[in-house]
Amino acid sequence: MNVGEIVFTENDLSVLAGFQQYKAQFAEDIYSYFSTIYSEVRSRYHRRPYLSSFHRPGYGETFPKDLQIPTIQKYSSMGSAFLFLAEVFPQLSFAEDFTCEHEQSPPKSIDAIASWFTFKLLPGSDNELWYLLVRICCYNWQDTSVAYPALHTLNSFRQLVDSIRALATYSVLYRFLHAGAIPGDSTADEIFFTKKSEPWTWTNVMYHKLTVAYQNYTKFNVRVCKPDAVLISGKKFSRSYIREFYANVKERFESNLSDLRQYFDKVLSVQAVADATLNSPTAIDVAENRIKTKNSLLLLINETALANVVPDFKPNVTIDSQEVARLVADMGVCVMWMIYFSATGPYRFPDMLILKYAGNQRNLFVDPESRCLDIITEYSKNREGNPMCKTLDKVTSDHLFYYIIVARNMLKHAVGTEYADMKRDLFNETNGAAEESLLNGYLARSIGDGISADDMDPVRYSRNVVNSFVFVDCTSHSLMHYARFSAFLKLYPMSVNWSMRLPFREMRHGMIKLVREYVKVEGEDVGVSAAKETLAGHSAATGLATYGIDHEKGLAADGSLEKVRSLVNAAWHHWLGLGYGSPAEDGESDIAKNSCEKRYFHPSGSIKDTIMKIYRGQDSKRDRKNIYWKCASLIGGKTMD
Q: Is the pTM of this model over 0.85?
């Protein structure tokens, strides 16, 4: 892009510095304009066929892609700098070589924005101004703390270009729809689909290169550090890091529970409640049909056992409902982190928000063999609707069960039966923008009569949410906020210096790398590698293409993919020392063969054997070809003889 040729004069920097004065109002105006544009295009423009996805090669995405409210806000905020630049461009030294024709119609209204993007991207238009504006945006001229602008980071510039693409796409479609000049979408096709628009093609190619470069950067930014760690972004992430973090949040859970005892009597320990209910052969009915589930996890426990573990109010003590709500919410965050570490392939934050112990789409169950809790959910990012079962270790299971049975009971007693403050917009306020398609499927419904949540009165709606979702925060009157969850990253592990603690994204990738490198299952082969990728929310092909993993080592795995996932899950618990056991020593096998195999997973031959049976059973060459590519994707692209 020859960005080195961009030279800012003092006047240029002075003009661009003016953005800071109007930034908030400018971003708010652009958000208002973009929201209107988006709404009209979504309602009037027919959905296009799937186009190739930059983020997931081999997959498609609809055009124009769906955007959630926080995403529109982000695009508006980032794109406002680009539109400000277009508005003040005539005042910059770069404008000397351009005629007034290039400078007309600065984008100051909805119609002006739509027309401006359209005329800049039409086939045959003079594209030099578009190229120059994007090149100028390579520099972070918004940062007035430095004397001369520095280049954006790779990821920040990638996100800026993505924002420009989104604003341009919807603005052009709005302009044609609003003007009624889009019969057959012929003109829009010339811009977006036929590659006749040079500036649009150039922008897309550049965005693709930025995406690939960023993926390569993250791929090679994780290094193995024997015997039990990885280096990610220059920070060490190890088994001891996770174990201490886990121990810290477990201690915090107990501390909050101790504080709650000032308001309640008969507050049993986590272990005592587990022994009286979850571990009891008579107190709980774990022989549950998961196709026709009971409406609530609590209904599995007999009434006598349940009554024996539920706390009572302390006599003559006034309950501070806000303090109880705060303590219980904090306990919930502790449990979320315990689940995060226990679930092998770590969940993203929205994937834990949808956990429900009651109501429609209940996804918490008790494994009848181990008496551990099973979570059946899906990864929000891939949006493929493939539920996956993961078993938590016993300690995490006991704490989650205790939180639902005991802590949440305290919360409901404290807020009272007339609690009516739960917000209707549960998910947008929890930073779940890209995952709303998953989250909305788990909205609460009334018990029995199927009334929509929108038709419930505030008391009934609030009661319904509190009695179904696991991670509810009655201090913010919503589901748990990401800010509350992520705040723990700045506190734990306590022995690690704050500057060496990992942020959420790096921790997730570090955990995935630890599973790949250190968690082994006897007979490890391509099937085990594939299982590790699906546990992390990837396909095996994604693991190979994006993260460079090796699928071609070891012997054949014995059993179905579900069984292999279960073995990897158990091996991760053993390696970390989760549950009531001890961690594997260096060099020790992570799991004895089939010792932790869940009995309801029945072996049916190795994954490769199963694939070959399906492949050879196809009647036509075309069917075999289709099966071939699906299987190649499953085992990481390895061909079959």
A: no
